[in-house]
Structure formats: structure tokens, C-alpha cells
């Protein structure tokens, strides 16, 4: 289960340290007590590797104590285990887990099991197999807690549940981790709806469990509604689901505001998510959520000022932040776009189509206050009005290809690249011709 990358990094760290020492820097007697520039450079370097390594571990594996919510309150572990394994109902087989979009980390599976899997000797219809995968820590984003007899007693969730996928190198849904790539197959609503006890959510929303299930099933794959347990708005005015797409967590360095509606910085949102969305146990302060008119559920549950002892979140925020900013946007595979057309499309993007006025390359969002009204981008303001700033944030476009599934814009309303381009062409009256539109699409695919 040791990620090979970290050993490479440690090797790199050692080489870099040696280089630093060879290039005249004297070995700091005590790195932490050093006052010379060289000693401090050395500490910076060490800090760099430490934050990265810890951040990766936290992003992938930390549950922030969210077992209290997913286990104790929702009792999701009982539904996963099934009656035959001390839980309730039929249990969740690996087949079902993969069908709701959960991913399996092939590097966490012991070799003998991997061989058996390849030979078709593993029963993928049996919930006991899911329990084994949980014991290996192989289900991306879900951690199982087992008692001494091997019974599943709780589950907790990790950032990687929604913000990582796998490369399918072993089999569909099974492969090496791709951190920061949104899992657009993951049906978060369907997974939560499996929970035998939805009373915490029902009580917060003031509805019955069936209504909660109806809401959860309205989301569909690749979506989650991070505002539901803040404002209680389950549906859009037109009756559609109020959920948003799971966004990329890569390519965020240099970007000022985060989330589709610019709630705050990466680390603000990390703290909000760990405490308020995942059900982790830490500290969170955001007085904007005390507005009972706008955020009735948040105000009721005291989400504006959360204090837990012990605090299982705050000490993890620096490394978590660092790791996310270190995640580069992936490059599209060769041959997935027409390079000559993309090159022409670049000129359209930067010129006639006016895209670059907001999506400023190479960041592809505005350096500065990257927020716009709904009217500026020609859409309704429902989701914007659910956020404190009541605007939409200019989405950074790097690595767009890795989130094509589920569509574009916060709710996936534009199913294709072409639909996005047509929307802007009509809204901004740019009068693009057919070949300019095609070139622009190829450029978007190339980012
Ligand atoms: C249940 C799924 C889920 C989990 C788990 C989750 N997130 Fe998210 N995340 C989302 C959704 C949905 C959004 C978009 C919210 C919005 O824009 O309103 C989001 C947005 C973000 C963003 C903003 C991205 C951008 O484009 O600016 C960051 C950063 C982020 N999450 C980090 C994390 C971290 C760190 C964790 C773990 C502490 C985490 N998330 C756990 C679903 C999830
Ligand atoms: C006025 C500023 C502005 C201009 C001009 C603009 N955009 Fe955007 N763009 C935004 C904002 C804000 C969003 C987020 C909308 C949302 O999520 O609902 C966005 C979202 C997008 C997305 C969706 C990204 C995703 O991950 O869902 C794409 C693609 C995009 N823009 C491409 C373009 C192209 C191509 C042009 C030029 C034709 C353009 N934009 C012009 C502000 C702008």
C-alpha cells in the first residue's frame, strides 16, 4: 500500500538535500534552530516534503472522525455489511459498489487477491468481498472500522471519495489513484440513501426519511449538494435537482476563490467540508452562516461556530492545503483533439470569442476577484444566491477533458463543449462562424 511516488519524492528530497549541502550550504547543526540562510533553506525544503507527504495521506486516508456521522448516526456500515455479516439487509457487493461509482485502489489489494481477481475467482456478488476490500483500505474514500471479531462497526469518508478516481488499469473502476480528478461516476446520493437511519438528516430538514431519499435519488452520478444541509433547498425552482457536479481539485494553485460560487479560499472550504459536509469533528467558524434567513439549517445546527474536542481537523489543514495546491491539472491524451484546430481555437478564445477576458491564460480564471453575476454569464442565479457572495466564480479550465462526463457549468447544464460555445456565442453576441466554433471546441479539449 506504500505509494511508490512518496518513496521517489523522498529519494528526490535526499538528493536535493545532498545537492544543497554540496553547493556550499553547510550542513545545519540543528535545522530547526538554524539562523543562517542555508539552514533556513534546508528547513524550507524539509517542510516542503513533509507537507506534501502528510497532505497526500490526509487527502487519501483521513476521515476526520466522520465515523460519528456515517457510522453512529446513519449506520451506513450496517447496510454495507448486510444481515449475513452482522448488519442489515442484503449488503453491498463489490458489483453494487462499482455500479454506484465507488472505485477500488488496485495498489492496496494484496498480490494473491489480485491474482484471484484476474482469474475470476473472487465473488463480486458477495458483500463479504466488499468487507475484505475495506479491510485492505482498497475502497477509495471509504474507511471501515472493524472490531476484533472482524465485524464492521463503522465507516468514515475521506476527501478522495469525491475528489479522486482511478485509472482503470486493472479493470473498469479498479486501478491506480488519480487524486484531484472528480469521480463523475460516483452516485453520492444513492450511497447515502442506502443508510438504514436517515433521521439526523430528516430532522435537520424537518421532513420524513422518504422525502430525504427522494432528494438523494434526484442528484444522480457525479453530483452532490454541499448546500442542502445549510439552506435546506432541495430542488431548483424549475423542479430540477439542486445538486452540483463534483469539481476538480487539481489545477487550483493561483486561483483566488473556490467552489462554483466562491465561498472562500481552498483552506476555508477544506475546513467547511471536513466539519459540515463530511461530518468530521473539528473547529469551524464562518459567521456568514449565522444568517437564519439565508441559511436556516446552518443557523439551526450552529454550523457557523463548530468546536469539537479533540479537534480532528485543524492540525491537518496546512498539509491538506499544500497537497491540493501541488496537484497539477492533467494533460489530455495525445490524439484526443485536433492540434492544428486547437491552435487556431486559441486565437478565437483570446480574441473574437472574448473568453480570455475572464478565463485569463494560463490560469484560466481571473487573477484577483474572480466572481461574476449570473447575468454576466447568461444563466439563472439560483445557485449563486445560495452562497454568501451571490456570484459565480470563473472556473479554471485546465484539465477540462477529465471532467467532461456530467457536462459543464456547476450543474452540468451544458452537456457538450459545443453547447458551452453556442451558449457564449449567443449570450455575448460574438457572431462566431462554424469553423471558429469547431476550433474553439478543439482548443477547450486541449487545455
Ligand atoms: C461527498 C463528496 C465530497 C467530499 C467527500 C468532499 N468534497 Fe470537496 N467538493 C464537493 C462538491 C460537490 C464541491 C462543489 C461545491 C460547490 O461549488 O458548491 C466541492 C468543492 C471542493 C473544492 C473547491 C474546488 C474548486 O473548484 O474551487 C475543494 C478545494 C474541495 N472540494 C476540497 C475537498 C477536501 C479537501 C475534502 C476533504 C476534506 C473534500 N473536498 C471532500 C464534494 C465533495
Ligand atoms: C464574464 C466572464 C466569462 C466569460 C467572458 C467567459 N466565461 Fe466561461 N465561465 C465563467 C464563469 C463564471 C463560469 C462558471 C459557471 C458555472 O459554473 O455555472 C464559467 C464556466 C465555463 C466553463 C465550464 C467549466 C466547467 O468545469 O464546468 C467553460 C468550459 C467555459 N466557461 C468556457 C468559456 C469559453 C469557451 C468562453 C468564451 C466563449 C467563456 N467561457 C467566456 C465566466 C466567463
Automatic annotation (TrEMBL):
GO terms for molecular function: cytochrome-c peroxidase activity; electron transfer activity; heme binding; metal ion binding. The keyword Nucleotidyltransferase does not apply. Residues 340-447 form the Cytochrome c domain. InterPro entries: Cyt_c-like_dom (IPR009056), Cyt_c-like_dom_sf (IPR036909), Cytochrome_c_Peroxidase/MauG (IPR051395). Keywords: Heme, Iron, Lipoprotein, Metal-binding, Signal. Residues 1-33 form the signal peptide. PANTHER family: CYTOCHROME C PEROXIDASE-RELATED (PTHR30600). This is Putative lipoprotein. It comes from Opitutus terrae (strain DSM 11246 / JCM 15787 / PB90-1).
Amino acid at each position: 500500500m506504500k505509494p511508490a511516488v512518496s518513496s521517489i519524492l523522498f529519494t528526490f528530497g535526499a538528493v536535493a538535500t545532498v545537492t544543497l549541502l554540496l553547493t556550499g550550504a553547510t550542513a545545519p547543526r540543528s535545522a530547526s534552530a538554524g539562523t543562517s540562510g542555508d539552514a533556513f533553506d534546508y528547513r524550507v525544503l524539509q517542510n516542503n516534503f513533509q507537507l506534501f507527504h502528510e497532505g497526500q495521506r490526509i487527502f487519501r486516508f483521513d476521515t476526520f472522525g466522520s465515523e460519528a456521522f456515517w457510522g453512529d448516526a446513519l449506520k451506513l456500515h450496517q447496510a454495507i455489511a448486510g444481515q449475513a455479516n452482522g448488519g442489515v439487509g442484503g449488503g453491498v457487493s463489490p458489483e453494487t459498489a462499482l455500479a454506484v461509482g465507488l472505485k477500488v485502489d488496485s495498489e492496496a489489494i494484496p498480490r494473491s487477491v489480485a491474482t484471484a481477481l484476474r482469474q475470476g475467482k473472487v465473488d463480486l456478488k458477495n458483500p463479504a468481498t466488499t468487507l475484505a476490500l475495506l479491510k485492505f483500505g482498497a475502497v477509495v474514500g471509504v474507511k471501515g472500522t472493524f472490531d476484533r471479531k472482524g465485524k464492521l462497526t463503522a465507516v468514515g469518508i475521506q476527501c478522495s471519495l469525491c475528489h479522486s478516481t482511478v485509472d482503470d488499469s486493472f479493470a473498469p473502476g479498479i486501478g491506480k489513484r488519480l487524486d484531484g480528478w472528480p469521480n463523475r461516476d460516483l452516485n453520492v446520493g444513492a450511497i447515502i440513501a442506502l443508510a438504514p437511519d436517515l433521521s439526523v438528516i430528516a430532522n435537520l430538514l424537518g421532513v420524513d426519511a422518504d422525502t430525504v431519499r427522494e432528494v438523494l435519488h434526484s442528484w444522480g452520478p457525479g453530483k452532490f449538494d454541499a448546500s442542502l444541509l445549510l439552506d435546506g433547498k432541495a430542488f431548483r425552482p424549475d423542479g430540477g435537482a439542486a445538486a452540483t457536479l463534483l469539481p476538480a481539485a487539481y489545477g487550483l494553485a493561483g486561483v483566488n476563490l473556490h467552489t462554483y460560487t466562491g465561498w472562500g479560499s481552498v483552506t476555508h472550504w477544506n475546513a467547511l467540508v471536513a466539519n459540515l459536509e463530511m461530518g468530521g469533528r473539528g473547529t469551524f467558524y464562518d459567521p456568514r452562516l449565522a444568517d437564519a434567513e439565508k441559511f436556516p439549517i446552518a443557523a439551526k445546527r450552529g454550523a457557523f461556530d463548530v468546536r469539537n474536542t479533540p479537534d480532528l481537523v485543524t492540525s491537518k489543514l496546512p498539509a491538506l492545503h499544500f497537497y491540493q495546491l501541488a496537484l497539477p491539472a492533467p494533460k489530455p491524451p495525445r490524439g484526443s483533439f485536433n492540434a492544428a484546430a486547437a491552435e487556431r481555437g486559441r486565437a478565437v478564445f483570446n480574441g473574437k470569442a472574448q473568453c480570455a477576458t475572464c478565463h485569463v491564460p494560463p490560469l484560466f480564471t481571473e487573477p484577483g476577484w474572480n466572481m461574476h453575476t449570473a447575468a454576466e454569464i447568461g444563466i439563472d442565479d439560483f445557485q449563486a444566491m445560495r452562497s454568501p457572495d451571490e456570484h459565480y466564480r470563473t472556473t479554471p479550465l485546465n484539465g477540462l477533458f477529465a471532467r467532461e462526463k456530467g457536462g459543464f457549468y456547476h450543474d452540468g447544464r451544458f452537456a457538450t463543449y459545443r453547447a458551452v460555445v453556442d451558449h457564449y456565442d449567443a449570450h455575448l453576441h460574438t457572431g462566431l462562424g462554424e469553423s471558429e466554433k469547431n476550433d474553439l471546441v478543439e482548443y477547450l479539449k486541449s487545455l
